[in-house]
Amino acid sequence: MAFPLLSLIVFMPAAGAAVLMFLRSDDAVRWTALGVTVLDLALCIAMLAGFDTTTHEMQFTETRPWVPALGITYALGIDGISALFVFLTALLGWICVLASWVAIDRKVKEFMVSLLAMQALMLGVFCALDLFLFYVFWEAMLIPMYVIIGVWGGDGRVYAAFKFFLYTLAGSLLFLIGVIVLYFHGGETFDIRALTAQDLPFRVQSWLFFAFLIAFAVKVPMVPVHTWLPDAHVQAPTAGSIILAGVLLKMGAYGFLRFSLPMLPEASLYYSTLMLSLSALAIVYGGLLALAQDDLKKLVAYSSISHMGFVTLGIFTLNLRGLEGGILQMFNHGVTTGALFLFVGLIYERTHTRSIADYGGLMKAAPVYTAFLALFTLSSMALPGTNSFVGELLVLSGAFAANLAVGAAAVLGALLGAAYLLGMYRKVALGPASIGVRFKIRDVNARELVAILPLAVFVLWVGLYPKPFLNIIGPSVRHLLTQVHSNGGGQ
Amino acid sequence: MTAATLFQSILASLPEIVVVTGACILLILGQLVPKGQGYFLVWASAATVLVAALATLLLAGEVRPAYSGMFIADRFAVFFKMVFYLSTILTFLLSRKYAEIEGIALSEYYVLLLFALSGMMIVASATDLLSIYVGLELMALSTYVLTGFLRKERRSNEAALKYVVLGGVSTGIFLYGVSLIYGITGTTQLDAMAAAVTGDPLDPGLLLAVVFIVAGLVFKVGAVPFHMWVPDVYEGAPTTITAFMSVGPKAAGFAVILRVFLNPLVAASDAWIIVAVIAVVTMALGSFVALVQDNFKRLLAYSSIAHAGFALFGVVAGGADGIAGVMLYLLIYAFMNLGIFGIVIMMRNGDFSGEVIEDYAGFAKSHRGLALLMLLYLFSLAGIPPTAGFFAKFYVLVALVERGFVMLAVIAVLLSAVAAYFYIRIVMVIYMREPERAFEPALTPSVRATLALTAAGTIGIGLFPAWFLRLAQSSVFGG
Question: Is A70 near chain B, with CB under 8 Å?
Fold first, then answer.
């Protein structure tokens, strides 16, 4: 058996968390957590260096029996789609540690343990090739995330943590039943590759599609099951928000890509119009809600709903451009929105207010901060030259090919995005200094800059030269499309 | 009965004989041991259980029917006996300090536990309605007394009285069902019953008999509509006994239910519909009523009702996977429930009762390790992976879906989402509140050992369920 690189990547943060338990000083905890996450990123880069971009097959696969009596295996492997998100998770991991460096000042050890456990589980979700294993990782994430929001969150943290926990739990329990039904229809196996090759009757596919939809729609989140997101985001500590927006929301979309589309192609085709409409609704509704927000974090949270609408829109166009755009947009959203939450966190640490009305004229006080904020704001509204432009353009061209009305609604959503993001930037950065922040605000320091720069690099890199990223996902996306259209009865 | 068959019968029931004999000896010895030497009783009782466990394992190689078809030592019985040994030994370890604090460290306490254990063991091995009755009563009478062991507390006395009266009624109902069965089939042996019925399995007389037997057995596991005693008895009894009752006698009740219900006669009479309704209602009631409890012991009582409901879903599913599902569920439940009870018992120190959930506010701040353990047990009870509680539920769901009961599986998971709420509410109190007072848990080495063992089981079975699953599957009778 080859070197178990993926197991190492997945379980290194978990091992790091175990080590943290024995450390005494807060500083040792912080540095160890940083060391582990940086090393994990290095391993991910090594993994990408050895990644073969010419095939859609699963790579770096590992298989070991786990519960043979039920056909459960411990199987890991990645294709182009998951590789991108494994990398994204590792990229945001150490940024989360840096973002919590001084923001978390009590129970530092417990926080870092939860953070590292969270990272291990998220990586596990993207690497799992066994449906049972996937579910274990998927569901176990609730524990550390619940603790992160509930212990280190804001004033309404308990309510937010409960809401997050119960929404996602209720959603994923139906998914569990779906998984078991699939297990018996698919020849008593949990192997994702074997299940993908099944041709299930349409009736079964329909039921499973909706069972899966509930779980994934809650995670994405799609309107109307999005209401946990603003609460969770507003109350979570900065690192929690980055994880939520950067990685957790991607898991719902990843679920569609990994399970709904290839395993239930007929149902996916049949219900694609419904999904497109729901996505368009999320884009416009999320945008309108964001327009009305005064709280910075809430604004970014609602913009996430709108942006994730673009992702699901791209996925359910079920054509090449739409899918590629949707997946790329998942990555972009992770980078850009992760950065925006980081920025909200940075300024909140200084002023302890998130109300937009309290800000103004920040440009004079913190020029570096506002310059980077401008970059990420523009990226979020998909200005040409930034990452989201590439993604949104692909999604929109896919959407217009699939459904004219939905495409038009998406364009409206993009316009709304420009409105609320530019409005936010104008009120925060430009104009006269407001009463709330008249005192001297410290600009970003070196530690914060180190966290910001890599994200800025990816904003421009994907924006100016997206080819390497599209190359990684390309073969897998094309394979996915043939699976959908050949098993689903053609377009 | 020849000498050879008598010897075979004695050999088959050797573990029961060991426990009963040990209990009798300890009853006498207990009067001779000077005060302050209480630990001797604990270790002697634990040693008795260990010897019985050893005998059980040594004899586990083959199926041994005994006492003219009233008793059998098969793998099914061995599995349940292991669960009983486990829960009894852990109860001994938890009782050491607690009994001293409560002033109930008498030899009778341990002896009665041993008698209850022997009753449960007989139940697990019984293959005749009468030997089932003998085992159930031995178990029940011992627990009645143990429930009222806090003689000076009204709550405890009241609980014991309630338990005796209701238990007596349920026994009466059970016996009435047995007499009906005997009238119709002319036998009380489980195997012979099915063979004796030649006519319609839906004969109303038979159905009536089955309903009576169901009622009697459902009382033992605390399922709706015979659950009323559970919260009061659990709250009033000494916490160690509550822990024991929620695991041991409950598992014994399930052992009988499995033996009786999966008997061809009962299986043919559509009794599963009754069980399915009971399972749904039990789980719903346990989950919803637990939401509003402030007393930890009452909350755990309703939680145990809800868990009984979930395990009953495995009975509904039936078949090899259903039976193995129930068995695995009970084993895992023993670990996690004794774990959480271990914490509650440990909190009882000085004037601190540790019975109100609010007592645990800010517990994580002063006792990181113990709070983490509580988190583990609570998430396991809620059924969140990677803990064992998840796998227990998962396997029952697999059995349900396998038999085509998808709708029941959906109901089961939705109700367990409701149940998750009150478990994580406790996590919230532990982690997200500020402590109001200092904690001084009675953390003795034996409590530590219990917590370590239960934690290892809760996380270990969750991560590596394969061996335990195979054990449960190979212990299913007739499969």
Answer: yes
Which class for B186: exposed (0-12), middle (13-18), buried (19 or more C-beta within 10 A)? Answer: exposed
Give chain A positions within 8 Å (CB) of B416. 173
Q: Tally the residues of chain B.
A: 479
Per the structure, the count of domains in chain B is: 1
Facing B401 at nearest CB: one of A67, A162, A180: A180
- Among A442, A464, A460, residue whose Cα is nearest residue A452: A460
| Residue ranges making up the domain that contains B383 | 270-479
Q: Considering only alpha carbons, which residue of chain A is nearest residue B419?
A: A166
CA A20 distance to own-chain centroid? 26
In a domain, B72, yes or no: no
The enclosing H or E element of B197 equals: none
The DSSP code sequence of A349-410 is HHHS--BGGG---HHHH-HHHHHHHHHHHHHHTT-TTSHHHHHHHHHHHHHHHH-HHHHHHH
Residue B184: inside a domain, yes or no? Answer: no
Instruction: Residue A176: list chain B partners with CB under 8 A.
Output: 394, 397, 413
Which residue in chain A has the smallest CA separation from B462?
Answer: A136
Q: Contact B414/A170, CB-based, under 8 Å?
A: yes
Backbone angles phi, psi at B437, to 5 degrees: -155, 170
pTM of the model: 0.93
CA distance A279 to A260: 16
Q: How far apart are CA A149 and CA B438, in angstroms?
A: 26
Least Cα distance to B334 among B30, B51, B79 occurs for: B79
User: Residue B467 domain-assigned?
Assistant: yes
Task: For residue B384, tell me if it sits in a domain.
Answer: yes
Q: Which residues, in sequence order, are bridge partners of residue A75? A: A63
DSSP letter, residue B478: T
Distance CA B261, CA B238 (A): 33
pLDDT tens, N- to C-terminus, chain B (479 residues): 688 889 999 999 999 999 999 999 999 988 887 766 777 888 899 999 999 999 999 988 888 888 888 999 999 999 999 999 999 999 999 998 888 888 888 888 999 999 999 999 999 999 999 999 999 999 999 999 999 999 888 999 999 999 999 999 999 999 999 999 898 888 888 888 777 766 666 678 878 888 888 888 889 898 888 889 999 999 999 999 999 999 999 999 999 999 887 776 666 667 778 889 999 999 999 999 999 999 999 999 999 999 999 999 999 988 889 999 999 999 999 999 999 999 999 988 877 777 888 888 888 888 888 999 999 999 999 999 999 999 999 999 999 999 889 999 999 999 999 999 999 889 888 888 888 877 888 888 999 999 999 999 999 999 999 999 999 999 987 54
This model of the complex carries an ipTM of: 0.92
Find chain B residues with C-beta within 8 A of A235's C-beta: none
DSSP, residue by residue, A191-210: BHHHHHT----HHHHHHHHH
CB within 8 Å: B427 and A146: yes
**Burial code of B74-104, b = ≥16 C-beta within 10 A, e = fewer?**
bbbbbbbbbbbbbbbbbbbbbbbbbbeebeb
Cα A266 to Cα A24, A252, A275, A352, B234, distances in angstroms: 56, 20, 14, 51, 53
Q: In chain B, what residues touch A180 (CB-CB under 8 Å)?
A: 394, 397-398, 401, 409
Please tell me which residue of chain B has the smallest CA distance to A174: B410
Q: Tokens in use for B307?
A: 């868990």
